[in-house]
Write a structure and sequence with these properties.
This protein is α/β, with parallel strands linked by helices and 942 residues long. It contains 30 helices and 37 strands. Strands 14-13-28-27-26-15-16 form a seven-stranded mixed β-sheet, covered by helices on one side. A six-stranded mixed β-sheet has the order 33-35-34-37-32-36. A five-stranded parallel β-sheet has the order 21-18-17-22-23. A hairpin with a 3-residue loop joins β34 (860-865) and β35 (869-876). α13 packs antiparallel against α16 and α16 packs across α17. The chain binds iron/sulfur cluster (3 copies) and FE2/S2 (inorganic) cluster (FES). Residues 21-99 form the 2Fe-2S ferredoxin-type domain. Residues 99-138 form the 4Fe-4S His(Cys)3-ligated-type domain.
Length: 942
């Protein structure tokens, strides 16, 4: 697969079929063999015979409305549409003759007679299927003229910030309507009216922005005319080349063709061959890339002696020397362990690898941690204990084979939208859905999708609910005995079975704690255990709890007990938040683990690294992020390197984080923007956006994708180069000529990556680790022939309620999450037009809780916990159960983490973001914290 390519893919007209039965037919005298169920149109296209078409495209099921693709089939009457006609053995098809030509020109005449003839100034000139088809059928005249009744004056809808809708150019092919339904699953568009009056309409004749549209862009991509067009194309013109790369937002890891004019991105088009997304995207990946060239980007290194001084722009040499001298001075004064660093799940594998290498080899300690600490560290722990590897078990495609889908603490349509669309497609095909979540997420009820069971549990009671599900499986005789006997450790199973059988885990016994009606929980357990292939998908609503790791093990127990591991359609699947959470963990970012999750105390492994790195490594695990903060406040931790992560906004108990950062003598921030953390930094090293990076990301399905630069680095350097220079300035030389050499070193030192190289990825597109040798193309489904650890291990999952309880003073429970239009701390998406959908964080509250407090929709409210208080706007929402409130943390001015506590997962210290006891009251002013942060104007506005 080449790096740079022309714009546009071959469109085969209808989707590929995967039948094992092959059919041979004759098209224009050529013998063609295709899978059964393939359309005549696709069979012709695959043989290199082009049939004119307008309403057909290979991302959608055929519709058969335009009649341009008609063909003759010997022995059949009339001229059937080739897009809707499946192939048959021995069929003889003629795609071109005088009669077909005449008929097609007639069809085109009708279209063109009601179409503006402004081709030369049309934004899609040169990339318009209508124009192409007029040429292809040889249209030379329009007998009807252009004076009749037409739609040429239809009004444009420019309400969406990213695309326009110009109905004067619409040919009512319904590709957009079908894309919105079939691919995206939102069903925001309809064809309103009949015959001549029929027109595309978002909702009940609303504008796009007022409709249910989620701006995924699938309709824009499907539109064969200029009716739906990206505003960037209107502004910049048609692209001239494209580069395949990977989205830098969520853990779905969608592949895109960045369509370019020189070094300017014209548009991002989801890549049809992208293993994770297969041609689909969400609003973030397709449209929200403008932050990369935003005026706020800092592209020059800066230093300052104290955080109270203004920044000084300096040369790279001066910044690196300043950082190195300060870090070494701190170590000389306070000891080798007084400094450390944090790697970023937004950076490439190669960038993360060099940072942890710098810390272990140049800093000389293991004080390296990653932002995954605060999201999916319990996943790593829980899945390693039970299955033997710290990663999800399936590829995304696997969901197509699931019969029962259990979604726990995840909101795929907002957090992982492209996978959410795939899941919805499977649900529309009939798979059953169980949602375990306090909040009524979209999946519970959306067009053509309804959960069979919504187990609306109390925040913090995941483990009790999971144990109760397992209790039903065990006590009602639903255990997959053969699977357990063959695949799992018998001693651990017997121990677990006795534990879970105890009546204290019954749905009835935990009903009061969980809030889930026992009968409903029993029914859900039976469905999961007996409904066919059952797959678990989960998110931070599982991990970000004081028992996050226990809950992960509870899900693994449930999957093993029912035999739902090791094949398509089943599994335990973490939906990763950031683009490279999986990769940053794989790359040895945890203080106790080298790459591939091998413990630093393992002498054999450590010696391999020492030999290749030419350094002596510490065999003791270093500090985790919360330990670093505590040690900073205590005065023993004095220096921090922070790679692409805004800990001052994203980590819990903001006041404590601020105190820790303020107590340090040297903080080095490597980032795109002067973020909240940079306010406490002494050195700012400008970073690169994904459009400048040359490396790899690893998505939630362990898929390693290439990230390719489409423009030169705005800072003049790759981030890994800067890290290498810093390590060298500290006396430990690290040299690579290219990112591929870093991957080669990773592969050399990491058995699960042994067969990975840039050259292979460029050749095959992507691979899912384990990829253990040159011939391997990776492992889509884990544990297929046995668990990685040998035998699956059932773990005891005692439920211990969180110490964070509602009380008279703090009677509500706050839980946090993200929304579709924003990403994490919002540093990127707030610098795009995505703010049109979500300009501020909102507190969702149940009507009863609001009424009790005299709160109306849109009121400013104060939210106070035992830790702190902040102010934001309220929205009365029927998604919330009584007693639970919800907000996002995308806007620093809101400071949602000012109220979250220090409670954390017992095994991994992942913070308990999902359970904070709070009180909510009406307010008319910002909180003290917001006033200190200078946020008065923004919050008090309106
Ligand atoms: S942008 Fe996506 S959600 Fe909106 S109408 Fe188009 S396909 Fe539907
Ligand atoms: S907007 Fe485009 S895709 Fe939709 S019906 Fe009109 S021409 Fe077809
Ligand atoms: S689903 Fe995730 S990876 Fe895909 S385009 Fe959206 S944000 Fe990017
Ligand atoms: S392309 Fe077949 S009917 Fe339109």
């Amino acid at each position: 697969m080449s790096n740079t390519m022309s714009v546009g893919d071959i469109d085969y007209g209808t989707p590929a079929r995967d039948s094992a039965t092959l059919v041979t037919l004759d098209i224009d005298g050529r013998s063609v063999t295709v899978p059964e169920g393939t359309s005549v149109m696709r069979a012709a296209m695959e043989a290199g015979i082009t049939i004119p078409k307008l309403c057909a495209t290979d991302s959608l099921e055929p519709h058969g409305s335009c009649r341009l693709c008609m063909v003759e089939i010997e022995g059949r009457r009339g001229t059937p549409a080739s897009c809707t006609t499946p192939v048959a053995p021995g069929m003889k098809v003629h795609t071109q003759n005088d009669r077909l030509g005449r008929l097609r020109r007639g069809v085109m005449e009708l279209y063109i007679s009601d179409h503006p003839l402004d081709c030369l100034t049309c934004p899609t000139n040169g990339n318009c299927e209508l124009q192409d088809m007029a040429g292809a059928v040889g249209l030379r005249a329009v007998r009807y003229g252009f004076e009749g009744e037409n739609h040429l004056k239809a009004e444009k809808d420019e309400s969406n910030p990213y695309f326009t809708f110009d109905p004067s150019k619409c040919i009512v092919c319904s590709r957009c309507v079908r894309a919105c339904g079939e691919v995206q699953g939102t069903f925001a568009l309809t064809i309103d009216g009949r015959g001549f009056d029929s027109k595309v309409s978002p909702g009940a004749l609303e504008s796009f922005m007022d409709s249910e549209c989620v701006s995924c862009g699938a309709c824009v991509q499907a539109c064969p005319t200029a009716t739906l067009t990206e505003k960037s194309v209107i502004e910049l013109g048609q692209p001239e080349h494209s580069v395949i790369t990977t989205c830098a937002y969520c853990g779905v890891g969608c592949s895109f063709k960045a369509e370019m004019k020189g070094t300017t991105v014209v548009r991002m088009v989801p890549h049809k061959d992208g293993g994770a997304n297969e041609g689909h995207s969400c609003v973030k990946g397709r449209f929200a890339w403008g932050y990369a060239t935003h005026a706020d980007r800092q592209t020059k290194p800066m230093v300052r002696d104290s955080i109270d001084e203004p920044w000084r722009v300096v040369s790279w040499e001066e910044a690196i020397s300043f950082a190195a001298q300060r870090l070494m001075a701190v170590q000389a004064k306070y000891g080798r362990g007084s400094i450390g660093g944090i790697t970023s799940s937004r950076c490439t594998n190669e960038e993360v690898y060099v940072v942890q290498k710098m810390i272990r080899a140049a800093f000389g300690n293991n004080n390296v941690d990653t932002c995954a600490r605060v999201c999916h560290s319990p996943t790593g722990y829980g899945l390693k204990q039970t299955f033997g590897t710290s990663a999800g078990t399936q590829d995304f495609r696997s969901v197509d084979q699931a019969d029962v889908i259990l979604v726990i603490g995840a909101n795929p349509t907002d957090g992982h939208p492209v996978f959410g669309s795939r899941m919805k497609k499977r649900l529309r095909q009939g798979a059953k859905l169980i949602v375990l979540d306090p909040r009524r997420i979209d999946l519970v009820r959306s067009p053509h999708v309804a959960a069979t069971h919504h187990l609306q549990l109390q925040p913090g009671s995941n483990v009790a609910a999971l144990n109760a599900l397992a209790h039903v499986v065990v006590t009602e005789g639903l255990v997959a005995r053969d699977f357990v006997t063959e695949r799992c450790d018998p001693v651990e199973f017997t121990r677990w079975e006795a534990f879970i059988r105890d009546p204290r885990h019954s749905p009835e016994a935990v009903e009061e704690h969980t809030g889930i009606p026992a009968a409903e929980l029993r029914a859900a357990a039976r469905l999961y255990a007996t409904g066919g292939n059952a797959a678990i998908y989960y998110g931070l609503g599982v991990t970000e709890h004081s028992q996050g790791s226990t809950a992960v093990m509870g899900m693994a127990n449930l999957a093993m007990a029912t035999g739902n591991i090791g094949r398509d359609g089943v599994g335990v699947n973490p939906l990763r938040g950031q683009n490279n959470v999986q990769g940053s963990c794989d790359m040895g970012s945890f203080p106790h683990e080298l790459t591939g999750y091998r413990h630093v105390s393992d002498d054999v492994v450590r010696q391999q690294f020492e030999a290749v790195w030419n350094a002596t490594l510490d065999s003791e695990p270093g500090l985790r992020i919360p330990n670093m903060f505590d040690a900073a406040v205590d005065g023993s931790f004095k220096g921090l390197f922070v790679q692409g992560e805004d800990i001052a906004q994203s980590d819990p108990n903001t006041q404590h984080v601020f105190a820790a950062l303020r107590a340090m003598e040297i903080v080095v921030v490597q980032d795109l923007f002067l973020n909240e953390t940079a306010a406490f930094a002494h050195v700012f090293l400008p970073g690169t956006s994904f459009l400048e990076k040359d490396g790899t990301f690893t998505n939630a399905e362990r898929r390693i994708n290439r990230v390719r630069p489409v423009m030169p680095s705005q800072t003049g350097k790759q981030e890994w180069e800067v890290v290498c220079e810093l390590a060298a300035a500290m006396g430990y030389p690290m040299r690579y000529e290219h990112g591929s050499q870093i991957m080669d070193e990773i592969a050399r030192l990491t058995p699960t990556f042994a067969g990975v190289s840039f050259a292979k990825l460029d050749r095959v597109g992507s691979v899912q680790w384990p990829c253990t040798d040159e011939d391997s193309v990776g492992t889509p489904i884990m544990h297929a022939d046995g668990f990685v650890r040998g035998q699956g291990r059932f773990m005891i999952t005692e439920y211990v309620p969180t110490p964070e309880r509602a009380s008279r003073f703090y009677p509500l429970i706050l839980t946090t999450g993200r929304i579709l239009s924003h990403y994490n701390v919002g540093a990127q998406t707030r610098r795009t037009a995505n703010v049109a959908w979500h300009p501020e964080d909102i507190l969702e509250i149940h009507a009863h809780d609001a009424e009790q407090r005299g709160i109306r929709d849109n009121d400013l409210v104060s939210i106070a916990s035992r830790i702190g208080a902040t102010t934001l706007r309220a929205r009365i929402s029927d998604r919330m159960p009584q007693g639970v409130v919800y907000t996002t943390f995308h806007h620093p001015v809101t400071g949602a983490n000012v109220v979250t506590t220090d409670n954390s997962d017992w095994a991994t210290n992942c913070p308990e973001y999902k359970v904070t006891a709070v009180q909510v009251t009406r307010s008319n002013h910002p909180s003290d914290w917001q006033i200190q942060r200078g946020a008065v104007v923004e919050v008090a506005a309106e």
